[in-house]
Amino acid sequence: MRSDKTPALAAPTALAFKGHTLTIPQAREAHDLLKKAGRVLVLTGAGMSAPSGVPTFRGPDGMWHNFRPEDLATPEAFARDPRLVWQWYGWRRELIARCQPNAGHDALARWMSRHDGVTLVTQNVDGLHERAAERAGSDDPIRLHGSIFRVQCTVCATESGHRKPVDASNEDTLPQCDACGGLLRPAVVWFGEQLPVDALSQAGQAALEADVCLVIGTSGAVYPAAGLAHEAVSSGAPLIVVDPGETAYDGMADVRLVGSADEVVPEIVDELGAGSTPVRG
Ligand code: OAD
Asked: 204 Cβ partners below 8 Å, 6+ apart?
């Protein structure tokens, strides 16, 4: 039975474990749950990339503290003022382009390269999981909210990669479609829009099949992405939450690891899969 009372964290004590030093006592519990699991759903959010220098959305340092989503991240906002929206996405792209995958991204990618049963689902549009995957030779994540380095034509819907700097000085200089000349928009999911059907269906399947659900750096505030962890738990998967702050999942978590993704994730997943954990048939 799951308690909805998370035990208060003891002061960090170092535990010797398989040659590693675990600074968070609950890390061993999380590691053991993951070790036994054939299939794992990993759901990540903005906090995964926070140690890389990418700002999160909510909380006092989050972007939604200083900007209004309805001005910048809805189809109506883009129709009203595409220059403003492109200025914001251009600024974020430049910021993200200077960031590197952190030790948490790398540890997840290495684990996935050793273990077929891990499905990584991300709400992040920054491409840092993909860059870690390239280094480790593992699969790309399932992207629920698109990519900040892709664009879609507002007229012919053609989608393509786009990394060039954006000149938003006037509407004529905004990115235009090579195929039809239409105005291009960032290929990200905005509030009020549908998530990509295939990505959501693959992620939903992984949630149903998961033996364990590992949630990292997401407030759990935005649906349908947030609902994936609920689906996994409803199907019987224990829930591990990695986050330095409070999340909507805290009451239902079996293990709560209060810490930063770049420090906690390597502690719990390094060495996993080395002896090849069987995938449930
Ligand atoms: P949020 O900003 O809502 O939540 C970020 C979470 O990361 C919070 O729970 C923080 O406590 C946690 N966090 C901060 N630093 C961390 C660290 N170093 N390590 C681990 N966790 C850390 O971001 P999301 O939950 O990803 O959607 O937001 C979901 C969606 O809302 C985003 O994809 C975006 C946003 O509006 C769209 O733009 C459509």
From this structure: 228, 231
3-state helix, strand, coil in the chain (%, to 5): 35, 15, 45
Q: Which atom of ligand 1 is nearest to the CA of 218?
A: 25
Quote the CA–CA distance of 232 and 11 in Å, as a whole number: 31
**Cis amide bond preceding 224, omega within 30:** yes
Name the residue among 83, 85, 67 with its Cα closest to residue 75.
Answer: 85
The number of angstroms, rounded, from the C-alpha of 101 to the middle of its chain's C-alpha atoms is: 12
Å from CA of 28 to ligand 1 middle: 25
Query: Annotated catalytic, 105?
Result: no
Q: What is the pTM of this model?
A: 0.90
Question: 264 with 271: CB under 8 angstroms?
Answer: no
Amino acid making up residue 56: T
Mean pLDDT by 10 residues, the chain (281 residues): 30 37 76 96 98 93 88 96 96 97 98 96 98 98 98 97 95 96 98 97 98 98 97 98 96 95 94 56 37
For residue 62, the 8-state DSSP code is S
